[in-house]
Design a protein that fits this description.
Bound molecules: flavin-adenine dinucleotide
Number of helices: 10
Largest sheet: 4 strands, antiparallel
CATH superfamily of the largest domain: Butyryl-CoA Dehydrogenase, subunit A, domain 3
Mean pLDDT: 98
Distance between the termini: 48 Å
Number of strands: 9
Radius of gyration: 21 Å
Number of domains: 3
Helix content: 40-55%
Strand order of the largest sheet: 2-3-7-6
Low-confidence stretches: none
């Protein structure tokens, strides 16, 4: 018995949404699930699947077809993220970064030439992008970033470093947020092969082990002037990208959460202690009931925020609320599910511990659990507690 839709939310989706869900789900079952445990155990990134995600339309699904995207709506984007993360957060992270943090800024803030040059190849997964905002000394306060560039007449000279960057070691290009000599944050497209640009890998992670994470280091990198994103200035640029990615995360974690929940339901029906299935104990039923209630409320929030986003009415604070809430619920569900499986909960034969470790990153990246709470606090009171 697999439960994924307790309140018949399917009735609120279109036939196209359901078809997309089935096609991504089938692909995840065929290509991701058989290899994902070993990739995590061995700490090996599985970027070889990126081109297949491109073929499925999972990269830049909301980018217009004219630029190689699938031209789908925001709900479809959410559904794609949900089904990918049912497989593993690493796969979803690659699709999130490529779609919301690389293709979106090029589409939204880029020149026509930049769109034509990069978007179709990014959509096909022929190019892999990364997004550099976080720095060694600045995570929650990106406005204090130290990475900077100066205008040298024919080119810009970029210096600094970004840290904890998804896909940095394998990226062909990076969207890098840096300050100009006037202290204004701007976006630059930094391409692999530019002299002085290196991307050392971050090792020894206990989370997102099937994803490649690293640094972006700029040592006097000459950036051609045509690689500046012309149509954005200030922190608003990266924040708009993060809004798009955070929205996708709110859906994505539902996939991980339901995978844990359904594993726990199945196990509790089969596992017997005291001559009875552990599912028969009230404490197990309490856990399962609370998990399903929480996951269902998270589904409804994701859908509603998706509708608002599609209508162009969503606020960044609403996205903060749903990202924080849904990641928190998925992580709680993962922890409770792990307990239901007892010792088996830590085994790679089940997906729970892997999802749980992944979600420990998701609760921190794209704005931490606490920072999102403070954003809601600001929205309620009008008083910024963290600026
Ligand atoms: C696997 C992984 C992938 C990532 N991928 C990317 C990527 O692709 N691109 C990118 O740019 N970044 C990426 N990040 C970085 C991520 O976005 C940052 O880790 C995150 O923004 C938090 O920054 P920090 O780790 O420096 O924590 P800090 O900002 O140092 O925060 C540490 C703690 O202090 C708390 N805190 C900070 N300020 C306040 C305050 N004012 N009030 C209360 N509490 C506060 C935080 O909530 C947190 O609990 C990734 C991180 C991980 C783990």
């Amino acid at each position: 018995m697999i439960i994924t839709d307790y309140l018949n939310i399917d009735d609120l989706l279109t036939e196209e949404h359901k078809l997309i869900r089935t096609s991504i789900k089938n692909w995840v079952n065929k290509e991701v699930k058989p290899i994902i445990d070993e990739a995590n155990q061995k700490h090996e990134a599985i970027h070889s699947l990126t081109k297949q995600m491109g073929e499925l339309g999972a990269l830049g699904s909301f980018i217009p077809e004219k630029f190689g995207g699938a031209g789908l709506d925001q709900i479809a984007y959410g559904i794609i993220m949900q089904e990918l993360e049912r497989g593993d957060t690493s796969i979803r992270s690659t699709a999130s970064v490529q779609s919301s943090l690389v293709m979106y800024p090029i589409f939204e803030f880029g020149s026509e030439e930049q769109k034509i040059k990069f978007l179709p190849k990014l959509a096909k997964g022929e190019l892999i992008g990364s997004f550099g905002l976080t720095e060694p000394n600045h995570g929650s306060d990106p406005g204090a970033m130290e990475t900077k560039f100066i205008d040298k007449g024919d080119y810009y000279l970029l210096n600094g470093a970004k840290m904890w960057i998804t896909n940095a070691p394998i990226c062909d290009l990076a969207i890098v947020w840096a300050k100009n000599e006037h202290g204004k944050v701007k976006g630059l497209i930094v391409e692999r092969g530019m002299q002085g640009f290196t991307t050392p890998e971050t090792h020894k992670k206990w989370s997102l082990r099937a994803s490649s994470t690293g640094e972006l280091v700029f040592d006097n990198v000459k950036i051609p002037k045509e690689n500046l994103l012309p149509n954005i200035s200030g922190l608003k640029g990266p924040m708009m990208c993060l809004n798009s990615a955070r929205y996708g995360i709110a859906w994505g974690v539902l996939g991980a959460g339901f995978d844990c929940f359904n594993t726990a339901v199945q196990y509790s029906l089969e596992r017997k202690q005291f001559n009875r299935p552990i599912a028969s104990f009230q404490l197990t039923q309490k856990k399962l009931s609370e998990m399903l209630t929480d996951l269902t409320s998270a589904q409804l929030m994701a859908l509603r925020v998706g509708q608002l986003k599609e209508e162009g009415k969503v606020t960044p604070s609403q996205i903060s609320m749903v990202k924080r809430n849904n990641v928190n619920i998925a992580l709680k569900v993962a922890r409770e599910s792990r307990q239901i499986l007892g010792a088996m909960g830590i085994s790679g034969d089940f997906p729970i511990m892997r999802h749980m470790m992944n979600l420990e990153s998701v609760i921190t990246y794209e704005g931490t659990h606490d920072i999102h709470l403070l954003i809601t606090g600001f929205d309620i009171t009008g008083i910024a507690s963290f600026k």
